[in-house]
Amino acid sequence: MKNIILTSLLVFALIAVSCSGDSEAENEAVLLGEFSIADSVASDSLFGPLSMVIFSQDTASTAPDTLSYISIGSDGSFAQTITFPKRAIYNFKILSGSNELVASQILLANNDTLNMSGSIPGLAQNIDLKSGEYEALDILNRVDNQYNRVVSLISRGAVADSLIGEELNKWANSYWEVYETYPGSFAADLAFLESVKILNIINKEKMFSRIEEELPKEFAIGSALNYGTEYVSNVRGLEGAVSYLDSLEQLTQIDRTKELISRVRISLLYDSAEVKRAKELTDVYEKQYANSEEARQWVKNIRYDLNYLAPGVRAPEFNFITMDGDTLSNESLNGRAFVLEITPLAAGEYQREYDRMIAIHEVYKNYGLEIITVPLDESEVTVEAFYETRGQHWPTAKLGTFDVQELIQEFNIQQVPTWLLVDQNGEVVKKYVRSEIKDIIQGLGTVFSNSNDAS
User: Fold this and answer.
1) What are the Cα distances from residue 259, in Å, to 87, 319, 371?
2) Are residues 149 and 217 both part of a single domain?
3) pTM greater than 0.85
4) Can you tell me the distance from the alpha carbon of 386 to that of 376, in angstroms, rounded to the nearest whole number?
5) Which terminal Cβ of the chain has fewer Cβ within 10 Å, N or C?
6) Amino acid 373: pLDDT
7) No. of H helices and E strands in the chain?
């Protein structure tokens, strides 16, 4: 199905920026279509009149919201102006009578003209769609594919360390070229996000500068939330970061963006041990978004962390039997700092971080740091296979010696991997989730700031 199926990367990113383009006011796009219909099909008594329906549907369990119904002529041609609330990915179906010929997705953007073509039979395999938006996405897709090959080479060690920074900078510039070549398109928004993401690795100052240049565009506000806030926090401190979030909130008119800014502000205070302020803002957020089930669930999770897993709070009680038969608990680790990592060992993200954890362990074990892994895998075979290929460097809880559901609830595990850093007094330093583990060195620096000599 040419030019209709998007890569998973693009679909994910398009969802992320779909609220950052056209406003919630009515938008329009023109859809032109021409299908060739084989004579053998047209003369078939079972071949019904052709039609197309374009609709949005939040989840599989919710009712579809029809945006446009198009009656396709007997010659296979049609022309229709479609109105829609915002530029985004929408679903469509093409029907022959009540029989479904095609079910796919279409990108709708304000003032775009789309040309759809194909032949019947076999429309599901040969349908094609062209537009200015799709042309830009094709270019971006090529850049993505080439960049991903380079990333694969880097991950395999095929690029010299001395050249990695230069290579990544080249691709940051390639994405930026797409951004500047196709202004106002989906592809431009996505290219901006990718350029910023790369610069966040190699040149944070340039990354922040590019974000600032593009504010108050909504997609730039999204990047400011994801990357700019952390940069400002490191440069200007907590209060500087809070002020920065306040300024971003003033720039947007989109309610969803304002809600996300509120969440980031609360999480920032939570991470900075400003628990009282975080709780106060959580109460405000809860009242403001009381009608949202998603918001209520987020409040439930953050409130649990604020009460039981916030910096300075006594770590939850645990007791494990290790694979070596030893018992590990809060009591047995009293006086020692430790990292409790909770994850399936089969999780790809944990496997990618394992070398980082080995390096951390090699350095900080000399200061007394313990690491304990609590695997959430279903089979001991998985655990044993993981260590057989990578080696076991610290204690691991034996499957079956702990209640997985109780553990998930006690430590409020919403994503994996999750790491909990606990100091020598048994108090939580910080909870790290997924990519946040890159910040653990800062936490360890705090824990061992008074340790002058390694043992």
Assistant:
1) 20, 39, 36
2) yes
3) no
4) 13
5) C
6) 95
7) 16, 14
Q: How far apart are CA 371 and CA 435, in angstroms?
A: 18
Residue 226 inside a domain? The answer is yes
**CB atoms near residue 216 (< 10 Å):** 13
Q: Can you give the residue range of the structural domain that contains 390?
A: 319-447
DSSP code, position 435? G
Last residue of a domain, one of 130, 164, 199: 130
pLDDT value at residue 455: 56
C-alpha Rg value of the chain to the nearest Å: 26
pLDDT score for 450: 60
Check whether residue 286 and residue 178 sit in a common domain: yes
Collapsing DSSP to helix, strand or coil, 13 comes out as helix
- Do 113 and 169 sit in the same domain of this protein? no
- Low-confidence spans in the chain with pLDDT less than 70: 1-25, 450-455
Give the DSSP letter of residue 156: T
- Closest C-alpha among 46, 37, 14 to residue 117: 37
Listing DSSP states for 317-380 in one string gives P-EEEBTTS-EEETTTTTTS-EEEEEE-TT-HHHHHHHHHHHHHHHHHGGGT-EEEEEE--S-H
415 close to 433: Cβ distance less than 8 angstroms = yes
* CB burial of residue 183 (10 Å; 0-12, 13-18, 19+): exposed
Identify the pLDDT of residue 454. Answer: 56
pLDDT of 11? 37
